[in-house]
Amino acid sequence: MKLSVIGCGYLGAVHAAAMASIGHEVVGIDVDPAKIAALSAGEAPFFEPGLPELLREGVASGQLTFTTDISAAHGAKVHFIGVGTPQRADGYAADLTYVNAAVDALLPHLSPGDIVAGKSTVPVGTAAELAPRIEARGATLVWNPEFLREGWAVQDTIDPDRLVVGVAGGADVSTRGARSTTGDAGGEADVSTRSARSTTGGGEVDPAEVLREVYHPAVAKGTPFIVTDLATAELVKVAANAFLATKISFINAMAEIAEVTGADVTQLADAIGHDARIGRRFLGAGIGFGGGCLPKDIRAFSARAEELGRGESVAFLREVDEINLRRRDRAVQLVVDGLGGAVFEKKIAVLGAAFKPHSDDIRDSPALDVAVRLHGLGARVVVTDPEAIANARQKHPQLTYEASRDETIRDADAVILVTEWDEYRRELDPEHASTLTAGRVVVDGRNGLDAAAWRAAGWTYYGMGRP
Ligand SMILES: NC(=O)c1ccc[n+]([C@@H]2O[C@H](COP(=O)([O-])OP(=O)(O)OC[C@H]3O[C@@H](n4cnc5c(N)ncnc54)[C@H](O)[C@@H]3O)[C@@H](O)[C@H]2O)c1
Question: What average pLDDT does range 374-395 have in this prediction?
């Protein structure tokens, strides 16, 4: 199928390359000429495992092209919108400027029967507002939220754990829902086709069925394919992120209680995590979540709920946000305490800059926030990261960066782990570290180090929510 992908950032570039790899003819479109130049040369403009290989193959085969020219979208059957929806500068709501601009630019190039599939994370109600403009062109809008995790984005795009497609007027949810949750690709095709058919825009187009064709390998292997109305599809995404953020802040709240009682939050997490209803994943206490999604998504959700007169329904997300941000303060305080009350002129080695391992994404990174705060207290902060130094330097040029882990910790008075890359978490031997540093203070901002091993090597070890 011929597809266009508008917006080629972390989501869109991976989506375009992944769709080409499963046999589609894809054009990726972005307003950033530097990004398009890199992608056209088969190079990934950011770090994402597996993406360079897909880009090279796709570009070499001619299945995958990139351009800044939106008219190249003409002739595609499905147009995916993957532009950014950052937090507005003047508040917590999502900035929909880029979504609106992308849709406006696309409209003249739509043909009757085309499908526009929104993938950006948007406030509930956005699709309903956009739909009339798209339907006026004889095309159909669906919302197809994206759940990929940076670091695993290629795999998550080709082989997701579920696919969600919201279609306008998708009132007949029961018929479609009953079929869709089984994830079967065959069977009741007639029922599905009839119930999901949209007559609003593209005449006899069944948008959900077209999306099934797009995602054919995942559909064939029985991946749950859930067809909803537009509002539900939009809400599924923000609800999922709100849940994940809440789970992280829950365990970080327990860490705060552990800190005043002498309890160990990692043991607590192990113990409650054995309960299948709770589960151990996302119960890692530490310096909290960050990145280009969770923080801005929970804030946008709160803002949208306020607009809808239901602010109280998600009022807890403010607490979730506050708990999350307090953990950064805590990590800074542990370094200060570990160094006897002041960090002025002390060398502090910061291990990590990205918001999580396997990514170079530094958007709202707790790691960099901690580094910047220590710098503000007068410390000589040196930051290292396997992939994110270039991005970090651009955003925070006042910090010192060092590519080598060992040079970063050389002569340091304290070491703080803030992003759990394996080279810091598993591969940094505390005995070896002792031969390089000036002091023996380590703050484990991710509870990822072997506390006993570090203590045995003579270090004063501070964890998050641990004695
Ligand atoms: N990154 C993730 O892990 C992830 C996961 C799920 C959902 N999302 C959502 O996907 C959306 C995109 O996120 P991202 O991380 O890829 O952001 P990003 O900033 O990396 O990419 C957005 C891209 O859109 C481009 N763009 C902006 N305006 C444009 C226009 N009018 N026409 C064409 N291109 C335009 C930008 O140049 C940029 O390359 C957001 O809504 C985000 O919440 C992201």
Answer: 98
Residue 461: pLDDT over 80: yes
Asked if the domains 2-223 and 265-463 are classified in one and the same CATH topology, the answer is: yes
CATH of 265-463, one of 3.40.50.720, 2.60.40.10, 2.30.29.30, 2.60.40.3080: 3.40.50.720
Confidence category of residue 169, pLDDT binned at 50, 70, 90: confident
Beta carbons of 371 and 353 less than 8 angstroms apart: yes
For ligand 1, mutation pick of 5, 10, 106, 391 (most atoms within 8 Å of CB): 10
Name the residue with tokens 């085309």: 114
* Residue with tokens 């479609």, as numbered in its chain: 176
Question: Which CATH code is given to the segment(s) 2-223?
Answer: 3.40.50.720
The closest alpha carbon to 437, from 458, 400, 416, 409, belongs to: 409
44 φ, ψ (degrees, to nearest 5): -80, 130
Q: From the CA of 297, give the closest atom in ligand 1.
A: 43
The answer to whether the pTM exceeds 0.90 is yes
Report whether pLDDT(199) > 90.
no
Atom in ligand 1 nearest the alpha carbon of residue 296 = 43
Domain boundaries, the chain: 2-223, 265-463
Mean pLDDT of 358-381: 98
Name the residue with the closest Cα to ligand 1, atom 7.
Answer: 146
Angle (CA) 29 217 213, round 5° = 65
Distance between Cα 258 and ligand 1 center (Å): 38
pLDDT of 304 = 98
Q: Decide: helix, strand or coil at residue 434.
A: helix
Task: Report the nearest atom of ligand 1 relative to the CA of 94.
Answer: 41
201: tokens are 């825009």
CA atoms within 13 A on the CB side of 14: 24
- What residue owns the CA closest to ligand 1's atom 30? 102
Q: Residue with structure tokens 């305490």?
A: 337
Nearest residue (by CA) to ligand 1, atom 5, is 148
Task: Count Cα neighbours of 9 within 13 Å in the Cβ-side half-sphere.
Answer: 17
Q: Is 31 in the pocket of ligand 1 (CB under 6 A)?
A: yes
pLDDT band for 172, please (50, 70, 90 cuts): low
Counting other chains too, the contacts that 171-175 makes at CB distance below 8 Å and 24 or more residues apart are 171/229, 172/196, 173/227, 173/228, 173/229, 173/232
pLDDT(202) > 90: no
> Phi and psi at residue 27, in whole multiples of 5°?
-115, 125
Question: Does the Cβ of 201 fall within 6 Å of ligand 1?
Answer: no
